[in-house]
Design goal:
The structure is a homodimer. Chain A contains ten helices and no strands. The model of chain A has no long low-confidence stretch (mean pLDDT about 95).
Amino acid sequence: MGIRERREREKAELRQRILDAAQHLITEEGFAAMTMRRLAEQIEYSPASIYLHFKSREEIARELCELGCGKLLSKMQKAVAGKDAAGRIHALGQAYVRFGLENPETYRLIFMEDEAYMAAAFGNQSEKSAANQAGDLLLGAVQEYLKSIRRRQKAQEVVQLLWATLHGIVSLHLSCTGFQGAPPEELAALATGLVVKGLAGG
Amino acid sequence: MGIRERREREKAELRQRILDAAQHLITEEGFAAMTMRRLAEQIEYSPASIYLHFKSREEIARELCELGCGKLLSKMQKAVAGKDAAGRIHALGQAYVRFGLENPETYRLIFMEDEAYMAAAFGNQSEKSAANQAGDLLLGAVQEYLKSIRRRQKAQEVVQLLWATLHGIVSLHLSCTGFQGAPPEELAALATGLVVKGLAGG
DNA sequence: TATGTTATGTAAACAATGTTCAGTAAAATA
DNA sequence: TATTTTACTGAACATTGTTTACATAACATA
């Protein structure tokens, strides 16, 4: 009899509805607006019911972070298609920055809200998480580029620098809303360009 | 009669004690630990009394941010003494990163806790805030360097990129506590070095 | 010295948060 | 139909930041 199957399906559907509502609230009004009571209101259940599907508010956030990282990874994967090493570095930078601009609240949640979320994204180093795979994309491009210019330089260090730079560009843009300088895409292009040139020359 | 003077002095002293206690709590246990009740406990007054000196918890935080920015500025000012343009860029990067490492919770508060604090730090563009002065230090060095290599490039853009990069290095280091890569000073040196070389070459 | 005024301080309450738990109603099973 | 399991919720708890009505002490004035 398919009764159990049906109930499991219903349960999974409700869980998904919670996640959808959470994502929606965060996208529209930011993480702080995603309270358990507003979430409950959205799905038309009591607040306590949410705890039948998630251990805590933080667990919901963590799951959304993983989904967000997946989205970022897929953007970056599409960006590298059919390009040489330097071109991939540039394209990855643009993809990263655009993800941040198009999904500001999701970006905030993953990288700026709580170190725990970010640590979780990079944490599972045994099973390659989406964030780690994104890092590998960057690492591959940098390694190939360093090889092509016959330069001995720790690729990991360059990757860390690039990621930090891109993160800095996005996070300052999202935080300093008043201050309007050069657009993030332009800064990212300048950054990747200078890294590429700087490594080649000298 | 010096009665009014004495009372004003006492009031200012209590206000300062609140700030000190707040700074201490933040330094030791982070911003979240700085609750009005714990603050009241520290100064041995009731929570409501704090509101006789500050409009809100946020106002206390903002004032600590300004103090923090002043500290950062003074570090950066010392760093540039008696150096050429490229040397100043390097030294400013090192000073910035070290400030973040030595005052992690203060750095968090200013740049990572709430965009409002950071916006406030950069906001008063009429009266030059400490943060703005720090930016000017960087701008001066970059302008002089660009001139010395006869390169036409928007100095403001390079400053933005440098600041974003340094912020990215520090904030990723503070957030990704688990992940241990290259030390921030090394990354900052690499960053400033690549910018300097990248601008010169090509 | 007595009285009025002002500054100082606090207890208690309010609204909002995440979370827990006892209890209930419904559904599945026997 | 009776029993057990599951799904669900109302009410409460411990926290927050903040406000308000009230008390008290210190001061100024007559």
